[in-house]
Amino acid sequence: MILSVASGKGGTGKTLVATGLTAVAEPDLFVDADVESPNAHIFLKPRWQSLEQVEVAIPEFDEEQCTLCGDCADFCRFQALMILAGQRMFFPQMCHGCGGCQLVCSRESITMGGRAVGTIRKGKCDSFTFLDGLLEVGEASAMPVIRMLKKQIAAIGQRVIVDCPPGTACPTVEAIRESDYCILVTEPTAFGLHDLDAMVKVIRELNIPAGVVINRQTPNSQPGIVEHYCQKQDLPLLGVIPFSRKIAAGYALGSILPEIDRKWSLILRQIWAKVQEDQRVVTQ
Amino acid sequence: MRQLAVLSGKGGTGKTTVLGSFATLAAEKVLVDADVEASNLFLLLRPSLAGKQEFFGAEVAEIDQRLCRVCAKCRRACRFDAVVHYLTGVKIDSLRCEGCGVCQLVCPQQAISLNPVVTGWSYLSTTEFGPLSHAQMVAGSGEASGKLVTELRRRAEETARDQGMNLLLIDGPPGVGCPVIAAVTGVDLVLIVTEPTLSGLADLKRVHQLTRYFKIPAVVCINKYDLNRQTVKQLEAFCEGEGLKVLARIPFDPEVERAIAAARPLVKVSNGPAATAIRSLWAKVGQWLQ
What pLDDT, on a 0 to 100 scale, did the predictor assign at position A164? Predict the structure, then answer.
């Protein structure tokens, strides 16, 4: 089973919940797919085993064969190639690595080489494998790194937890696709609710069953704001984590929830039990 | 024209809370909500929506099934796993399609077209604190998020010139990828809002690396700073080591939550410690911008 943890809004507690669940869900693989700002390793402290570069294809030009005809530049839809003042200009960071330039070149002067855009890191925690990705700072697209992470999931894990990026665009979509269930972590504020709604549209489009965890509930929180939304959307409420300075301070130092206080294992167990129950219901 | 972008690396550190208050403190300016995937600034500023425009941020391939012979050349040529081969034919997965046109190129039946798609809507709205350039993005859209941010800035800059204003305040997204890059290129100053957690420090390092990469001056404010003394020290040591000025330390303050619940900028409804720190932060940032 692949369980993804997402939110829409940043900072709601995805990593808090995802890393906490490792203590009760007995995963064999944990994946931190937030490759722009991965943090899960701070909490799960894997013993690093290997590093693999993620490459995207880029064109390499044979100057002898190239006649500057410009067919490649005409084809390129990403403004990565230009012929200007009798010179060919290539902008690697605009390039998507589609290989189209190579296909249109009538002189066979283009071969596809590779360009490093990030790294996949693999490690071992006590009872599960840990994988994360790191996008090279300055690179625009997290997609190649996340795609590489996804390919490794199939090879390694049966019971997988995926900590997803914030936002609702393609990196998040790629991270949650093909998961069997998605936990949406939100905070009981208008901000959290607005972004939860955007995520719900995504999981509906992807047809992934989902449930909601409310984090940082306080007496000042607008009562029922999220519960009401869940009811209307027919989304199960999996659990509520109250705001606690103790959690905040423990999280600040890199402790997972059950380490901060054993009582939090109970909430995590309840969340995990509800996920399993809901997933069974949905797949029937 | 001077432009300030507020970033964090890590989500949830307080960018929108800080910028929402800056919006009320700064004089003549245009506001930009560049967090197009999860835009929250409008919730504080309550705009009258205006200037709605469709944004075509991407092209997506489409196979004309009447012409398709299911040779699957497109699937073999596609480097993004965006062509799906199912029992009776092939189809484009629009969420994965990057609009490169290779499938169209290789299709022997010329059955594939590339069509512009609406990936969001941009608005130029009015608020009691000035014009707000913001957007609603179609969830799941690709790097159209970076392009949409660029469009929002373009509209904001145009408005500023039209109305004789000299300042753009940009609420940035979390992360370091394309919408963040689009939010910061060409700005005069980045304010990094961070928090005293190990995660916050890790992401501060990443976003600082980004500002270095694009050669943009950056300053820091530490939000919820009294959360954890140990990590505050680590944060401050990092900043000092990098020559990053810490302009403010905003204490954790329950009035912030109340202000968010009331959907109002903090400094409008509070004179508490956080509001005071933000007012003083704005005064300093204002100096840096000159």
Answer: 96
Kindly list the distances between the CA atom of residue A168 and the CA atoms of A118, A174, A211, B37, B228, in Å, as whole numbers in the listed order. 21, 10, 17, 5, 31
CA-to-CA dists, residue B94 to A205, B141, B143, angstroms: 12, 9, 13
Which residues in chain A are closer than 8 Å to B79, comparing Cβ atoms?
57, 97-99
Name which of A38, A170, A245 is nearest B140 (Cβ-Cβ): A170
Cα–Cα distance, A255 to A252 (Å, whole number): 8
Cα atoms in the Cβ-side hemisphere of radius 13 Å centred on B18 = 35
Which of A15, A16, A98, A146 is best to mutate for the B interface (most B CBs within 10 A)? A98
Residue B205: exposure state from Cβ atoms within 10 A (0-12, 13-18, ≥19) = middle
Q: State how far residue B167 is from chain A, nearest Cα, in angstroms.
A: 26
Question: Which residues of chain B are within 8 Å of residue A106 when distances are taken between CB atoms?
Answer: none
d(CA A71, CA A108): 12
Query: pLDDT tens digits, residue range A249-283?
Result: 999 999 999 999 988 999 999 999 999 999 887 77
pLDDT in tens, A150-164: 998 877 778 999 999
Q: Measured between beta carbons, which residues in chain B are less than 8 angstroms from residue A54?
A: none
- Kindly compute the dihedral angle of the four CA atoms of residues B253, A199, A181, A133, in this order, to the nearest 10 degrees: -80
pLDDT of amino acid B139: 81
